[in-house]
Design goal:
Helices cover about 35% and strands about 20% of the residues. By secondary structure, it is α/β, with parallel strands linked by helices. Belongs to the leucine-binding protein family.
Length: about 375
């Protein structure tokens, strides 16, 4: 049972201040209008997390706040500097890989960055930073989660199609690594070039119906198509359009995710209901990852009984830290790269199909460490990255 700290007796609670910095880029709209961004994307998850933190915090003499800041790539550095000058100790960052690294370097030891969006393996490897905690799962974790399921199905021959953007290439490399790790064989690889053409046009479905079968014909014999399309250019068009009748996985079809609005197990139904009542829409991955980042901060405050930024950071990085995430087990941090361990959901458009790690994959420390870069493989060196 938690000891009630002296601050709980105070009339004025100790305020634990954080911020959510979302960096929006001007991009083409998503392939499907169902994926259009909402104004409260990420922020809605933060609001639910603050409610959850305050539920416990009021008994501990603690109160939580989270500023919501929207920036562009050009204004992000100034916004981060303003937050630091405002004595914000924790910033939940929703940005791409490059900006995440740049802003982490700018923050230095002045603030702890909670990466709730960027999935690049380099951020957990050669470009790791001591001041950054990765709440979003990495490309390697997502790829390993899918690979375990495909191996369980005995779908060992993969036809890999990758996009031409850097994030697509990074994701494809993660799938190559997963294939080697779990014993799958990539029988053929093809590159889908993004030519920048129109997406949702009147004739778009006609063009796709003609192009995708031609693009995928005469592939080597395969069990499954694995799409590496992090930029959301082509993968959504693959189901039912490929030359050979094969399952589509990766960035479309069966997709590895940190969260899915159909998730109901382990108490998630009530969690989903509370979010939907607050936001009037289903929860997306960025909402979940932002919620989880701020819940990590709330859990550290509750368990440590402290509101001091340094003590909270130290507790987050300690062996004692764990947080519940409606995924059936406690989530913990890897000390070698500050990546949050977590199960990965495998889902289709409407339903959950499975959850990885699959039960046949064991590990000497944690089965969750079968997903992503394990300690012996890491390229992260905090001694050099601080």
């Amino acid at each position: 049972m938690l000891a009630l700290p002296a601050m709980a007796q105070q009339a004025t609670p100790e305020v634990i201040r954080a911020a959510v910095l979302r960096v929006d880029r001007q991009e083409l709209p998503p392939t499907s209008r169902l994926e259009l961004a909402t104004e409260d994307l990420g922020f809605a998850g933060a609001r639910l997390a603050i409610e959850d933190n305050d539920t416990t915090g009021r008994f501990m003499g603690q109160k939580f706040t989270a500023q919501e800041v929207v920036a562009t790539p050009d204004t992000a550095a100034d916004e981060l500097e303003r937050l630091i000058e405002d004595d914000i100790g924790f910033v939940v960052l929703l940005a791409d890989d490059g900006l995440t690294l740049s802003l982490a370097d700018q923050a230095g030891d002045r603030v702890t960055v909670l990466n709730a969006a960027a999935r690049g393996d380099n951020l957990r490897g050669r470009d790791c930073r001591f001041n950054t905690i990765h709440v979003a799962p990495s490309h390697a974790m997502l790829a390993d989660a899918l690979a375990q399921f495909l191996m369980w199905k005995n779908w060992t021959r993969w036809f890999l199609i990758e996009g031409s953007h850097q994030s697509d290439i990074d994701l494809a490399n993660a799938y190559r690594r997963s294939a080697a790790k779990f014993g799958a064989r990539i029988v053929e690889e093809r590159l889908y070039e993004d030519t920048g053409g129109a997406r949702r046009t009147d004739s778009g479905h006609v063009q796709v119906q003609k192009q995708m079968p031609v693009f995928t014909q005469r592939a080597a014999e395969h069990d499954v198509v694995v799409a590496a399309d992090d930029a959301d250019v082509f993968a959504a068009y693959l189901p039912y359009q490929v030359w050979d009748p094969r399952p589509i996985t990766g960035s479309a079809g069966l997709v590895p995710r940190s969260w899915h609005p159909a998730m109901e197990a382990w108490g998630a139904s009530q969690f989903q209901n509370r979010f939907e009542a607050l936001a009037n829409r289903p929860m997306r991955e960025l909402d979940y990852q932002t919620w989880l980042a701020l819940r990590m901060l709330g859990e550290a405050a509750t368990r440590s009984g402290s509101s001091e930024t340094g003590e909270l950071r130290d507790y987050l990085l300690s062996e004692q830290f764990e947080v519940a995430g409606f995924k059936g087990q406690k989530l913990t941090l890897r000390d070698w790269d500050h990546q949050l361990r977590q199960p990965i959901l495998l889902s289709t458009g409407l339903l959950m199909t499975s959850v990885s790690p699959q039960e046949q994959y064991l590990h000497q420390t944690s089965r969750l460490d079968t997903l992503g870069i394990d300690r012996p493989e890491t390229e992260c060196s905090f001694a050099e990255a601080k």
